[in-house]
Amino acid sequence: MLVCSKCGGEYPERFRLRCDCGGTLMVMRETPGSLSDALTEYLDMRRYLGLLPLSSGYPEPVPSITPVSELDVEGTTAIFKLEYLQPSGSFKDRGTWVTVAKLVEEGITEVVLDSSGNAALSLAVFARRAGITAHLFVPAHASPGKLSLLGRLGAVLHFVEGDRMAVHERAVEFAERSGLTYVSHWLNPYFIEGTKTVAFEAYEQSGVPDYVLAPTGSGTLFLGLWKGFSELRSMGEIDRLPKLIAVQASGYESLCGRSSLRSYLAEGIAISEPPRLEEMRRALAETKGSCVSVGDPEIGRALKWLWERGFMVEPTSATVLAALWKLMESDGIERGSKLLLPLTGSGLKTVEGI
Amino acid sequence: MLVCSKCGGEYPERFRLRCDCGGTLMVMRETPGSLSDALTEYLDMRRYLGLLPLSSGYPEPVPSITPVSELDVEGTTAIFKLEYLQPSGSFKDRGTWVTVAKLVEEGITEVVLDSSGNAALSLAVFARRAGITAHLFVPAHASPGKLSLLGRLGAVLHFVEGDRMAVHERAVEFAERSGLTYVSHWLNPYFIEGTKTVAFEAYEQSGVPDYVLAPTGSGTLFLGLWKGFSELRSMGEIDRLPKLIAVQASGYESLCGRSSLRSYLAEGIAISEPPRLEEMRRALAETKGSCVSVGDPEIGRALKWLWERGFMVEPTSATVLAALWKLMESDGIERGSKLLLPLTGSGLKTVEGI
Lengths: 354, 354
Known about the structure:
The structure is a homodimer.
Chain A: E1 2-4, E2 10-11, E3 25-27, H1 35-38, E4 68-73, E5 76-82, H2 92-105, E6 110-114, H3 118-127, E7 133-139, H4 144-152, E8 156-160, H5 164-178, E9 181-182, H6 189-195, H7 197-206, E10 211-215, H8 220-234, E11 243-249, H9 277-286, E12 290-294, H10 296-308, H11 315-329, E13 338-343
Parallel strand pairs in A: 5-13, 6-7, 6-9, 7-8, 10-11, 10-13, 11-12
Antiparallel strand pairs in A: 1-2, 1-3, 4-5
């Protein structure tokens, strides 16, 4: 069932973005008695099919179980999870995969999304093979390399002059006018069902951490991690939730106080007004977590550090390490803590003139 | 133990590239009684630690268990294995990972390699974190994007004017003069120990195929697949080897007859004189396999087909699909056959101006 996070309204599990009251929705299901009961034998994301709201079939390719890699960072045990190794190069594939499965289930064959970043790339990877035409609304000035990727994957591109907000408005207008489904991952409850599997995997690979640091813009990963660990607690696998640290980009904070200087590097989380803000606040309070804002100088240093250790990630992924350094300086995290840091996006897309 | 494929000479399991007779070496060990006995609980390549010649420790990050994705191609069941989702963007990480583990075991801290492609990128990803300085000899005219990747990963670049052969000679000279270890993956027996795990995974994910189509230049993947399936047979998991199809690039054939027109697209297998040629010939004969050569027009068509199905691969990866189409036209493969096609390298590196 879908449940409204604002008024508690309930809806059947169909594809739907909002409650009639305007609130955002989450999938709510009874969890199995234990994780091991729910696991399948698959060696990919289908391992968690028993915990996903899918009733028949799934799209291809199936996202990976991504490796974790442990490093000592300033006296903490930092567990990096390599989400950038998913088929489209970002963690978003987990959410897109569940979403596309749901769209196929409902016979939806044409959808609309506004993005020229990882969300668009992820949708383009899964949609066409599933028989879905993806209309992607992109800024006319987006990088030619990114647009070429989207085109080669078979997406239909619509170019919009203007800022990010103009692109969004044109996409929504187009969807309404043409009667097509708008698949905002910011709102879509099935997207979070996919991202929650990061928590399941990390738990199986390295147990429950004391802290989880997630790049947080729209909150699709942050809330997925909260939901995944919450479900592990419901199943009796863990008895406490890790503290969630929302890592935000300078100038685009929604949970921390807003800085005046805008980050240019952390483009994946440059989202000032996320529609799921209230849900994120609740997750922070429930886990006694906190918000940390980071700017480009420290993101740049963190990015260099990660590449030198073999993690070819994009700048947004480096925000979590920058935040960890910042927290260690201010005694926000105890030495000896165990931390989970998802590395969200591939840096191969960010190399010029390769 | 290391065994020479030419004279049968035996050596202890140290890092070594050739037999005293000049022949190439393979690791030979007794296989466990069954695959399930040997498997570990890890959800990454360490799953197969029990079948690898490692005695202590391993480098980080650990390569993934890559997903497989099944498609009907001209009446066959084509199982694509997404090796391009490894940490450095290619299957080579499997071989590099075992190699670097071995180098660390032996206390080797400085190595030399000539490549500006996937092998170099893979070595750069694993070496620095393992405490190894990688001297990479690269053509002075290699793409600035690729060189920037290698630099950011912490490799030491040596630029050489001249053709690929000049680069190779300078690397060998430098290694000899400075007493450093030259780590040619073409010769290195530990590299094949890593690539053999593709066979183990594919077998666990989708059983034994009738045919395996592998891009084949130096033969490190081809021979790894042969060795992996051979070990599965030794363990009694399978009773026959799949037929191995060596897919080669037009103008660079070593197993098929040499074409006059040279492929520009299949740069990953543009290797005219692989040192393991005799071993490859034996694997072809033993499995009743064959060689297929493909050229750029069909590689281009196959690449387009793969991208439209969500596989963001580089052109060399598309050779296997081009070969499958060619074999279906000439009745070289029966309809209804089950085929394994590893997709070897990421296409994100090949996008201009992203």
